[in-house]
From TrEMBL:
Compartments reported by the entry: Cell membrane
One GO cellular component term noted in the UniProt record for this chain: plasma membrane
Segments traversing the membrane: 57-77, 97-120, 132-157, 164-186, 230-249, 288-311, 323-346
Protein name: DoxX family protein
UniProt keyword Transmembrane helix, yes or no: yes
Keywords: Cell membrane, Membrane, Transmembrane, Transmembrane helix
Keyword field contains RNA-binding: no
Origin superkingdom: Archaea
Source organism (scientific name): Halobellus litoreus
Membrane topology: Multi-pass membrane protein
Length: 370
């Protein structure tokens, strides 16, 4: 990894991270889910007006500068090392629950989508409502029970990608892609029906003598994918990061009309007394910044915490926002708190640099010449 290039990218990302963090809050919902509709707004004119206002520039500048100084100060001073180390060790201890967390994160919203009659995203309905309902309920419950988990996740991924070809609006639910891939890699885990079946098939039981699947298919497949399970954090953070960038750029900065209508609908300028333009730009920049940070693996657990905060304010702040549509994002952010950035990340480079720069403790053994 090119260190100088990585640091440069990280610095530019971190400079934007807090730009709109105090402003995004409840405006960070999926705009398409709650917009009351609006007249078309010229994107360039809107952004020029918002970014040439002296007050807006002052707020954005102070936020960006504070973010950059905070990040650089942390990298230099590294405060609360012991607290952070204990926190990391604690959440890493939940790794055995990661498959269960991922299954809940996908299974629950899919069951809700099935009963509600939409295909992955509330803005997408297909011509056959019966198929959509059966698909969501069946795939969702199979994932919740953890039965045939890897196969179900693979079929779910193919279904999403196939739907995306015909309905680009499904990109609003892009987080299903990394979630399905991660589930296919880690399997059902425990507790799950797959774990119960594997225990029965692996032991000297009557079932083990008739099971046609476990030794012939499941075990060889697990052995093949096992080397790639270390990439699960990369899959999760890149996929979630792409979702955030899309939501921030496409749904807010490039769709200011609907975004401004949402600000007006919920009277968000009464919550934080700034212009609607600054609300929209702040929310869009925050989501895009969080997404970019996740993609490059910069302070991933902290970024996941920010994402978790944005989702929480969205769910409790917008009364008519479809909560089920956000559960998958909630779950992936929670999963990243457990896994951290993983390999191919700025966090991994920092960790390796610290390991090399920290001298090994002197040996306590006593050498004897006798």
């Amino acid at each position: 990894m090119n260190v100088s290039r990585t640091i440069g990218r990280a610095a530019s990302v971190l400079a934007v991270l807090i730009v709109g963090s105090s402003l995004a809050g409840r405006a960070s919902a999926h705009v398409r889910y709650v917009t009351p509709g609006s007249d078309p707004v010229a994107v360039v004119a809107f952004l020029v007006e918002a970014l040439t206002d002296p007050l807006n520039l002052a707020v954005l500048g102070v936020g960006g500068t504070a973010s950059l100084l905070a990040a650089l100060g942390y990298l230099r001073l590294r405060p609360l090392r012991r607290d952070i180390a204990v926190f990391r060790e604690t959440v890493r201890g939940y790794r055995d629950l990661l498959p269960w967390l991922l299954r809940l994160s996908v299974g629950l919203p899919l069951v809700g989508a099935g009963f509600s009659g939409y295909f992955f995203s509330p803005v997408v309905t297909l011509g056959s409502p019966t198929f959509v309902r059966l698909f969501g309920i069946t795939v969702g419950f199979l994932l919740l029970f953890g039965f045939g988990t890897r196969l179900v996740a693979f079929l779910g991924l193919l279904s999403y990608l196939g739907g995306l070809l015909f309905s680009p609006a499904l990109f609003l639910a892009f987080e299903y892609v990394p979630a399905f891939i991660a589930i296919a890699l880690v399997g059902g885990g425990r507790p799950s029906a797959d774990h119960v079946v594997s225990q029965l098939a692996d032991a000297e039981t009557a079932y083990s003598r008739i099971d046609p699947f476990y030794r012939a298919v499941a075990v060889p497949f697990v052995r093949r994918v096992e080397p790639y399970t270390a990439l699960v954090p990369v899959v999760l953070r890149v996929g979630l990061g792409v979702s955030f960038v899309y939501l921030g750029v496409a749904q807010k900065l490039m769709n200011p009309g609907d975004a401004t209508a949402v600000v007006a609908k919920y009277n968000l300028t009464a919550v934080v007394p700034v212009s609607p333009e600054l609300w929209v730009v702040g929310a869009g920049l925050t989501e895009a910044a969080v997404g970019t940070v996740l993609v490059f693996g910069v302070f991933v657990r902290a970024a996941s915490g920010v994402a978790f905060l944005l989702f929480t304010t969205t769910l409790f702040g917008l009364p008519d926002d479809p909560i089920l549509a956000h559960l998958s994002l909630f779950g992936l952010a929670s999963a990243l708190l457990v896994t951290g950035a993983g390999p191919l990340s700025f966090d991994a480079w920092i960790r390796e640099r610290d390991r090399r720069s920290t001298p090994e403790p002197p040996s306590t053994s006593v050498r004897s010449d006798d």
